[in-house]
Design a protein that fits this description.
- The protein has helices at 10-23, 26-45, 51-75.
- It has a domain at 46-76.
- The protein has 76 residues and is mostly helical.
- The protein is built from three helices and no strands.
Amino acid sequence: MQPFNYSSSYEEFLARLRKSLQNQNISENILSLLESAFEKALNEQNVVLSRQERVRAYHTVSKEILTELLKQFDKS
């Protein structure tokens, strides 16, 4: 682990941090978690959807959840 280099700018630090998180596939993990929860919720509701309806519903619900999550960042 590298110690924080105070001579680097804060923006450079954030860029390195973001790159590190991207290398850990955080976005893919979040989407995978959302998809699993979506499929589980559909099964619990005993809902049968066509592939097209399923994709549309998944995108709509996921976008709403992620939008709400981003709003929480704005509050903090």
